[in-house]
Amino acid sequence: MNPLLQTLQPYPFEKLRALFKDIKPRAGFSPISFGIGEPKHPTPAIVRDAVVNALGGLSAYPATLGSEPLRQAIAAWVEKRYHLPAVDAATQVLPVSGSREALFALAQTVIDSRGAGPAGAAAERPIVLCPNPFYQIYEGAALLAGAVPYFANSDPARNFACDYSAVPEEIWARTQLLYVCTPGNPTGAVLTLDDWRELFALSDKHGFVIASDECYSEIYFDEASPPLGGLEAAHRLGRGFERLVMLSSLSKRSNVPGMRSGFVAGDASILKSFLLYRTYHGTALSTVYQTASAVAWQDETHVRENRAKYLQKFTAVTPMLAEVLDVRLPDAAFYLWANVRRTGLADTEFAARLYADYNVTVLPGSYLARTAHGTNPGEGFVRIALVAALEECVEGARRIVEFCRSLAQ
Ligand SMILES: Cc1ncc(COP(=O)(O)O)c(C=O)c1O
Asked: Does residue 293 line the site of ligand 1, with CB under 6 A?
């Protein structure tokens, strides 16, 4: 067996299952889950119909490069969404089977596991720099690529921005890949142009690749100010896409997590190697879904309707929870990242007791982060995914308020 498999951590939901194992929720409350960050709005008719109409495509093997119409649709979307002059559909975009597999596969493509170090000297293992808290795939991708993850803790005092200035030079020197998540899971924080300026300067100096996970980019609350993307930042700062790729997905944007459709865009030379890797890995998106995805990327009406539903939920729920927890509307995405310290409970205790007393599931923040530099930056927080219908979210929030008030008595 590959010994690196032993280095993988249990997934947050496995930890949650273990936490809840011996708990029987109090009778009289229907289950409400804010735990899993999985979109639950119905898939829009335009996408469902496109899938049905494309079923004839099942008789053909899909091209790993993706169909020409899909690449054209993605390139056009990227140009429009990020105000870019021209994105080359042939070399600067690549459809993938959801951003998760692409985030993983990218590390296998980019990392030189022989490591860095002066010629002749024993090479040191390469580093993959990850935000903390983070989406666990980054860590697994790093470990299985033979790299060592290094965590940059998010700072609640700076809207959960990661403290890259605290990363030592010798770590940067070994860094081959940096994952960023913007809007972030779980904090919802969006990287600013200044953040990007800093990251590009570091990448220029040390030569690492930046993979920008932007799968929540279309869930935001002000129609007039969509979150800044990595490619957009590069363009606004007068650069090309060297050493930069962004990953996007239809899962959240179009409520099709089951379709497994996303794309990677950016540096053509990285995408060339990535395509080579992928032809062997064999993860081409089904022809049926390629056709339906092209339709989804060309329509914004269903995406605006989707956003409106999230806005309604955040508008109803955030002020309710703000009465009992330290929480506010995030920059974007569909999570509330709530500080529960004022209840006097640890995040795990909070989640366990809320489940026991009110049958409401939230995810302890410490399960989404690692202890690094003497602290677990997820500790004291819970992640509340507002994915269910409005009424269910409001009822869940009402129970959380009641639960917190019961603790104060
Ligand atoms: C931060 C982040 N990135 C990527 C993904 C993967 O999304 P998908 O593979 O559906 O595109 C998720 C899914 O929850 C996520 O939270």
From this structure: no
